[in-house]
Amino acid sequence: MARALYIHWPFCLSKCPYCDFNSHVRDGADMDAWKAALLADMRHEAREGAAGEPLESMFFGGGTPSLMPPALVAALIAEAERLWGFAPGIEITLEANPSSVEASNFAALAAAGVNRVSLGVQSFDDVALQFLGRLHGADEARRAIETAQDNFGRVSFDLIYARPGQTADLWQAELDDALAFGTGHLSLYQLTIEPSTRFASDVRRGVFDPLADDPAADLFTLTREMTAARGLPAYEISNHAGPGEESRHNLAYWRYRDYCGIGPGAHGRRGGLATMRHRKPENYLAAVAAQAHGIVEARPLAGHEQAAEALLMGLRLDAGVEPAALARRFGLSSAALLDAGKVELYRSLGLLTFADGRLAVTDAGMPLLDAILGEIVGGELVAS
Fold first, then answer.
1. pTM (2 decimals)?
2. Environment class of residue 348 by beta-carbon count within 10 Å: exposed (0-12), middle (13-18) or buried (19+)?
3. What pLDDT, on a 0 to 100 scale, did the predictor assign at position 28?
4. What does the alpha-carbon distance between residue 54 and residue 182 come to, in Å, rounded to a whole number?
5. Among 155, 166, 168, 172, residue whose Cα is nearest residue 121
6. SS3 107
7. Which of 27, 251, 334, 358 is the most exposed, having the fewest neighbouring CB atoms within 10 Å of its CB?
8. Is the pLDDT of residue 327 over 60?
9. Which residues contact 22 (CB under 8 A, 6 or more apart)?
10. 8 Å CB contact between 5 and 58
11. Cα–Cα separations (whole angstroms), residue 181 to 31, 117, 142, 144
């Protein structure tokens, strides 16, 4: 049964040049139509057997969900509680940009039921923010963090590092600034040039060169050392938290638990079924009007597909996975799940650990995670 609910709000004020998420810039949105569509989509998920146990987490992602009217957020939270019920201490997260306009809604969003906010700060340097296409300034970001801390029980914010020309000294100073706020969670992402983004075009045209792999790896190591020393160790490749401050919603993904996803472009996993909603906002609204849900594809996943996804997600975590438990869960042999020879090779190189039945990627292996995963996943999973 699904115990996590994701709600996607697809609208932004502008498209960031590094972003490949399903976000759209529109002159306006009919909030009554969006309320009706999202509620209908949510009810469909409950009817399809995804209800039955109380929700442990809700997550409003985007796009920029802090642009949603607080009354709409409140209505969605209330309907989710009616359909599923809430587990004690449910985590309800909303992503927000740190503009003064959006920060002015924080008290109303907290009153609506949001108890955790994730701020897209990205940098405390105005030149870097301009490069990243952000609409806020560094001082505005600092004020938004403080406002969030005044209104929400739990606060996280994102930073993007390994930017072109960024040195270890510059990143150390910026990360020191971030850690001084004392939030329980930080998401620290290396700048990645994603296909079909403006940055990808800029790199092709020679507008800028990405930071080279070796200095980027040095910044990754520095990040882990600094956050661990300040009580926020990495629990996932890019996420750092104090004890009990981990994102429960994201842990549901990484531990490969069922979750429902509604809204344009949202994905879900429930009962061995992979669901995907229409990406374009207008197509999503039309689909909900025609069929009372926004699903464009619902595909049963074979055991080997689920096992491969569970491995790829679980090995992002510092705690790793239990291969034997995954094999039992999906009805596979251990040999089908992993290439034992490659696991032993990377263990001998210090990139993996395998102890007490748990396989995990080491700090040294995390910068090479994608390459390692491509090697150790069992041949039967890849070939199937």
1. 0.95
2. exposed
3. 84
4. 31
5. 155
6. helix
7. 27
8. yes
9. 8, 10, 63, 264, 265, 279
10. yes
11. 35, 14, 9, 11
